[in-house]
Amino acid sequence: MKNILYHSTRDNEKMLTASQAVLKGLADDGGLFVPEELPKLDVSFEDLKNMDYKQTAYEVMKLFLTDYTEEELKYCIEHAYDSKFDTEEIAPLVSAGGAYYLELFHGATIAFKDMALSILPYLMTTAAKKNDLKEEIVILTATSGDTGKAALAGFADVPGTRIVVFYPKNGVSPVQEKQMVTQKGQNVRVIGITGNFDDAQTGVKKMFGDEELAKELKAKGFVFSSANSINIGRLVPQVVYYVYAYVQLLKNGKLSEGDKINFTVPTGNFGNILAAYYAKNLGVPVNKLICASNTNRVLYDFFSTGTYDKNHEMEESSKAFTNERKFMLTGSPSMDILISSNLERLIYFIAGADTGKNAALMADLSSKGAYTIDESMKAALDGFESGYADEKKTADKIKSLYDETGYVIDTHTAVAGAVYDDYKAASGDDTVTVIASTASPYKFAKTVMTAIDPANANEDDFKLIDKLSEISNTEIPQAIEDIRSAAVLHDIVCDKEDMPAQVKSFLAV
Ligand SMILES: *Cc1c(COP(=O)(O)O)cnc(C)c1O
């Protein structure tokens, strides 16, 4: 098998092994690690039909993480996709309303971040061993809700690691806060800060860049690392379920070999849809990748015009970026993002794997807040479609799908569902389509129940969760039952200036 090395999207001088890239997270020049070439599947779909999720995961991940031995990779996979998931299928497909929903929310925190964050701790600790890292890894994370809990659940009690999560004390939903402050584990700490998400994020970035602090910790046997979505160790596990979904449809006779498939993905940081693009390059016959945004539609504007502008919004009729772009809070908060970090990996690729060309565009983004790709790059985007759904359209999709089929989807998934409906109506494309279903509706019960039955949605979250269970005829996930009665284990709140002191106190240095 070909050994694949990794380099920055902005410079290909320095090559790293996969395990080194997993440990490092982000390149020193601010770029993201990319494989020097995108691999191809070396096993047939016929053979994949006989494999379960874990076996499929091995066949896909071994192509990217080539310096991990078979034994190491299988160890990581076995420990990640176990009974933490409430179904052995790991990522089941549900047919409803003319599309297939790929349910990526059966893990510990009932959102798709579990698909990668269940395995990242194992990939990281294995990488630490392979590279003779002597220090214990300390994961620092700032969260606006979902990532923090998924990272906590993934790293809890993983030997050789500690994790500290900072969240804005008054900036997350009650369910999200309860999920975090009840987190068990000897190696975890959750800290609220008096400030917003940006303060938490800035505080964490400062600690990553603090050489004095790094030196002090290293002397005591600790090194910082990141579980952020730009880590290649989060991207690669996400490629698996696109291959798996295609093969399940072949197996069930919904597709014949060679038939094409569309994937529609509710998109924020562009990690999930980029994984679908990698799957296409592996050999999954993809017709269209449909990128769905909410009201924060910077990606829709980009795909429509070739200009990425975080400060200005496109005017639909003139395609000019005349209006100020404002950050909007929506009912699909995990997609409320104006800088889509993982898009850089696609830009690098459509630039013909030209790191200099990509670096120049990223320099424009940082100096002017915008960049424009050239015609050849635009032409390379022809496999993508895009759209966006506002709050009303999203709520209408939840309601109409429920009314027609009884199936309940969450707000993020509904953004994708609505965008797919528009695409299908406009294009007439009837290719079999899989929609990435990224969160359990139970996680956003209030918004979901407001969409379905607004007259009776004025109740607290747990009452609405019971109602949701009744109307959808589904069991309340364990992750929700757990927090209903769980004891609060973390109650520290600090000022942002005190974040380093809190980390040191947790590590007893
Ligand atoms: C993170 C997240 C997304 C967005 O995924 P990206 O990889 O950032 O594009 C969509 N839905 C949910 C529920 C999420 O948690």
Describe this structure in words.
The protein has 509 residues and is α/β, with parallel strands linked by helices. Helices cover 44% and strands 17% of the residues. It contains 22 helices and 18 strands. It has helices spanning 18-24, 45-48, 53-64, 70-80, 113-117, 120-130, 146-155, 174-181, 197-209, 211-219, 232-251, 271-282, 298-305, 343-350, 355-368, 375-379, 391-405, 411-427, 445-452, 461-472, 478-485, 499-507; strands spanning 6-8, 11-16, 33-35, 93-96, 99-103, 136-142, 161-168, 188-193, 222-225, 261-266, 286-293, 307-309, 312-314, 321-324, 370-372, 384-388, 433-437, 492-494. α7 (146-155) links the parallel β6 (136-142) and β7. The longest helix is centred in the middle third of the chain and has 20 residues, at 232-251. Bound molecules: pyridoxal-5'-phosphate.
Q: Which keywords apply here?
A:
alpha/beta; binds pyridoxal-5'-phosphate; five-stranded parallel sheet; six-stranded mixed sheet; 22 helices
Question: How much β-strand is present in the residues?
Answer: 15-25%
Number of helices: 22
Q: What is the percent of helical residues?
A: 40-55%
From the alpha carbons, calculate the radius of gyration and give it in angstroms: 22 Å
Look at the structure and give the mean pLDDT.
95
Unreliable stretches covering 5 or more consecutive residues: none
